[in-house]
Amino acid sequence: MSNDTPVVGIIMGSQSDWPTMKHAATVLEDLGVAFEARIVSAHRTPDRLYEYAKSAKDRGLKCIIAGAGGAAHLPGMTAAMTALPVFGVPIKSSTLSGNDSLLSIVQMPGGIPVGTLAIGKAGAINAGLLAASVMALMDDDLAERLEAWRAAQTASIAEEPVDE
Ligand code: RP5
């Protein structure tokens, strides 16, 4: 992780979410966006959640990526306590394949927004990219790196399929 002051906070409800959420971290690392990663559970550590969300803006964070599974209240409760942009990543749960996580995160009441991503790895990657896009609005060098990242992705896509 970068030594710079974090501008993106990645939070997750459990250590078990990290294999998914590390994909958001990898994107931010690749793009040179300073971030922090913390375990913050809406249910198991509610006081930690309160402290994290309430202090986020004053600590310099510009947006938060929140991953949670099952009864996934972390993104919504975080958004309830900060006006920073919150991107929610539904973790693919073992029992309901992440449909529980998705519905818990996406169906917010009007007035408290959570930008909800896809279930699992793709959602975590895209949350990292969205956070980088937000930061790129204020950072021309990052905007260039983001354009380069996307161009490299485009260039990596073969025109014809091969047998694997
Ligand atoms: C949620 O419960 C976490 O976000 C995690 O996805 C899920 C299961 O947590 P563990 O029982 O694996 O710690 O709070």
Automatic annotation (TrEMBL):
Keywords assigned: Isomerase, Purine biosynthesis
Catalytic activity: 5-carboxyamino-1-(5-phospho-D-ribosyl)imidazole + H(+) = 5-amino-1-(5-phospho-D-ribosyl)imidazole-4-carboxylate
UniProt xrefs under SMART domains: AIRC
Residues making up the signal peptide according to the UniProt record: none
Domain of life of the native organism: Bacteria
EC number assigned by the record: 5.4.99.18
EC class name: isomerase
Matching InterPro entries: PurE_ClassI, PurE_dom, PurE_prokaryotes
Pathway note: Purine metabolism; IMP biosynthesis via de novo pathway; 5-amino-1-(5-phospho-D-ribosyl)imidazole-4-carboxylate from 5-amino-1-(5-phospho-D-ribosyl)imidazole (N5-CAIR route): step 2/2
One GO MF term attached to the UniProt entry: 5-(carboxyamino)imidazole ribonucleotide mutase activity
Family listed: Belongs to the AIR carboxylase family. Class I subfamily.
Function in brief: Catalyzes the conversion of N5-carboxyaminoimidazole ribonucleotide (N5-CAIR) to 4-carboxy-5-aminoimidazole ribonucleotide (CAIR).
Protein's recorded name: N5-carboxyaminoimidazole ribonucleotide mutase
Organismal lineage: Bacteria, Pseudomonadati, Pseudomonadota, Alphaproteobacteria, Kordiimonadales
